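User: When convenient, might I ask for sequence and structure tokens for a protein?

AI:
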Amino acid sequence: MPRNPDDPFDLQGKNLRRVVTQIRKNIRIQRMRVASHIVTLLILLTVGILGCRTTGIFLGIGFVCLVMAPFSLLGVFADRHLLRWQQQRLAECAHRLNGAEDFGGS
């Protein structure tokens, strides 16, 4: 089904009450993902910095952790973007639901 350019959140013809519960679930998941990416980034940076101050295999582990850190940072930004999009979608659903109730529709 082709997307409607007038409906960027793809809500046309959907049961908004069911969509709202799914969006809230997705928002909760995205918040957990952002938090986990931040924790992962901090662990990678800590292990990377401490590993680079030693020698041997720990130096290699530290270097790998420092190389992986930007990917975790990218994950933070990507999931924050998705979180904001889901929040905007939830606001649009609430707006449409309030508009439908004002006119007596369902």
Summary: The CA atoms of residues 51 and 60 lie 7 Å apart. The chain has one domain: 18-97. The helical segments are 16-52, 57-102.
